[in-house]
Amino acid sequence: MDAIVSVTRDWAIGKDGALLVRNKADMHRFVELTRGCTCIMGRKTYESFPGGPLKGRRNVIVTHDAGYVPPKAEELAAGTSVDVVTSPQAALDATSTDARVWLIGGESLYRALLP
Asked: Domain 2-113 is in which class?
């Protein structure tokens, strides 16, 4: 698994469901690197995407709510899937055979999975 994150100088990554800094080149690089891959993310990170699931990727959402139904996940573009798991370990287990996996946030998942 790889991790990708955009941080400020003091290591902040976001606030109130939004990025602190928007950088078009960073966004393009994110798409280039993650397209066709699996992306592990927390519920808040998923819900921060205005268009719903990341297209052309497997979206694995980690939430403590076993009954969570991801918004905008009912009509998926080709090559897009959404799975919900209830722990960081369950995310690792669910993606153990995927060719390329990216951890994309938020803070609690970085803390749980980076060590």
From this structure: alpha beta
What does the chain look like in DSSP terms, one character per residue?
Answer: -EE-----TT---EETTEESS--HHHHHHHHHHHTTSEEEEEHHHHHT-TTSSPTTSEEEEE-S-TT---TT-SSPPTT-EEEEESSHHHHHHHTTT-S-EEE---HHHHHHH--
Judge whether 38 and 102 are in contact, CB under 8 Å. Answer: yes
Could you tell me the CA-to-CA distances from 45 to 5, 97, 99 in Å, in that order? 12, 23, 22
pLDDT (tens digit, 9 = 90+) per residue, 38-54? 999 999 999 999 889 99
Measure the CA–CA gap between 78 and 57, rounded to whole angstroms.
9
Six token digits for residue 79 = 């090559």
pLDDT confidence band for 72 (50 / 70 / 90): confident
